[in-house]
Amino acid sequence: MKTFKLGGVHPPENKLSAQAAIEKIAIPKQVSVPIGQHLGAPATAVVKKGDEVKVGQLLAKATGFISANIHSPVSGKVFKIDNVYDSSGYRKPSIIIKVEGDEWVDTIDRSPEIDGNIKLSAKEITDKINEMGVVGLGGATFPSFVKLMVPEGKKVDFLVINGVECEPYLTSDHRVMLERGEEMLIGVSILMKGLKTNKALIGVENNKPDAIEDLRKLAQKFKGIEIHPLKVQYPQGGEKQLIQALTGREVPSGKLPLEVGCVVNNVGTALAVYEAVQKNKPLFERVVTVTGKSVKKPSNFLTRIGTPVKELIEAAQGLPDDTGKIINGGPMMGKALISTDIPVVKGTSGILIMPEKESKRNDTSNCIRCAKCVQVCPMGLEPVLLSKTSKLEMFEKVENERVMDCIECGSCSYTCPANIPLLDYIRYGKNKVGQILRERSKK
After folding, report:
1. Alpha helix segments (H runs only) across 209-326
2. pLDDT tens digits for 14-43?
3. Most buried in the list 259, 297, 317, 347, measured by CB within 10 Å?
4. Is the bond preceding residue 235 a cis peptide, omega within 30 degrees?
């Protein structure tokens, strides 16, 4: 069974919501739409207090090359533009809208018919994806149009599609593959045309046999698209790990997938690309998993951007009495939320509600030099060394030990018998080295 070469762990999968079909969640009475919910520069608001808006209307325009447009997920009146807490725990500029009805802009094709006739040219596809505010929905939220702008002299051999969903608990991608598979595959074909490549490889971990079977049947109608079952091995969904598993190619340190002729996109992104290009629909809603061992109704909700997390929890039949933490994302890479008022954004793949007994950190002890963290690191790093040097603020050493190659998967912390929060220290060191590199580039 295909997988990546170095490291990896296999946490309990806990895919409690895997059989829960996608359901639309009720539109809330008010939404908060952050203008910086993507990698790169925040967008600039083009509406003001008191403006009437419709679903799909442009709220904030991209600024700079790496940025993304933001569109209204609801219809109503702009209540105010204010700083609102987001999943990072910081207050960020957001457009707050009081909801009135559900009136969509008339340029969106709302018909249920699936449109597989791709009429746009490669350049037009890139421009449309840019216009519709599509970003990577696997977590990184990188503006998707940028990946289609292949530099002169570079060639894309493979479009790699991530259907792995290796984070425990999360099932939103699984349900997209099962319920929206044909539209997703048309989205893959659109991306292939945009990249001028004739080969797409879709990787799906073999704990999703139903999705693999369905996609294989559907893919027979699509030229150049292959479905590949993969071994269940976290973090199989990391782009460098996925490229190695599917193509055998290894992305060099500090380089992008394009260096080895690959571009990676998530299955949710492929669906968003289909909707943007074929239906003229901006990215203003996404599927979000709400789950946890004590959650009464683990679910996958089609959710408008800006919806408060508390609305999703209520739709899953409320917050369990034994709740210890509410995590944005999965247990390995997700981060605890400070409030349930925080809005869903383009990068929100799941909300994990952890019981008190599982959410507490165990007492730490001294490192016993077991090297387990080194064995499981999928990037071939030495987490214990990076952690110690980061803690001691030896940032030159941290940089030399390739901290910027860390994908923050958390495998090291997960496997450490001494319960040392290795990733916390590594993230600190990586952040500081990133600042140093940015300052250096200005000189």
Report:
1. 209-219, 239-247, 267-279, 309-315
2. 999 999 999 999 999 999 999 999 989 999
3. 347
4. yes
Task: Dump pLDDT digits (tens) for 409-441.
Answer: 999 999 999 999 999 999 999 999 999 999 998
Helix (H, G, I), strand (E, B) or coil at 372: helix
For domain 1-24+107-360, is the CATH number 3.40.1190.20?
A: no
Tell me the CA distances in angstroms from 381 to 51, 252, 351, 374, one per residue in order: 52, 14, 30, 6
Locate the DSSP E strands across 305-355: 323-328, 335-336, 350-355
344, 305 in Cβ contact below 8 A? yes
Encoded tokens for 310: 């508390």
What is the C-alpha to C-alpha distance for residues 151 and 148, in angstroms, rounded to an integer?
9
Cα–Cα distance for residue pair 329/326, rounded to 1 Å: 9
pLDDT tens figures, 131-145: 999 999 987 899 999
With 0-12 / 13-18 / 19 or more C-beta atoms within 10 angstroms meaning exposed / middle / buried, residue 218 is: middle
Residue with tokens 């292939």, as numbered in its chain: 192
Give residue 375's region: left, alpha or beta (phi > 0; psi -120 to 50): alpha
d(CA 360, CA 343): 25
* Contact residues for 80 (Cβ-Cβ < 8 A; gap 6+): 49, 96
- What the block records as the tokens of 131 is 């216009």
> Distance (Å, rounded) from C-alpha 136 to C-alpha 43?
16
Cα–Cα distance between 99 and 79 in angstroms, integer? 10
d(CA 324, CA 363): 17
**CA-CA distance, 165 to 289, in Å (whole number)?**
12
Query: How are strands ordered across the β-sheet holding 262-266?
Result: 225-230, 200-205, 158-162, 262-266
Question: Can you say whether residue 11 is alpha, beta or left, with left for phi > 0 and alpha for psi between -120 and 50 degrees?
Answer: beta
Sketch the domain layout of the chain as residue ranges.
1-24+107-360, 372-442
CB count, 10 Å around CB of 362?
A: 8
Residues in the chain: 443
d(CA 83, CA 93): 4
Contact indicator for 79, 96 with CB cutoff of 8 Å? yes
Q: Which long-range contacts (CB under 8 A, 24 or more apart) does 420-428 make?
A: 420/364, 420/367, 420/384, 420/387, 421/361, 421/364, 422/373, 422/383, 422/384, 422/386, 422/387, 423/383, 425/386, 425/387, 425/388, 425/390, 425/391, 426/383, 426/386, 426/387, 426/390, 428/390, 428/391
Rg (CA), the chain: 21
- This prediction's pTM: 0.96
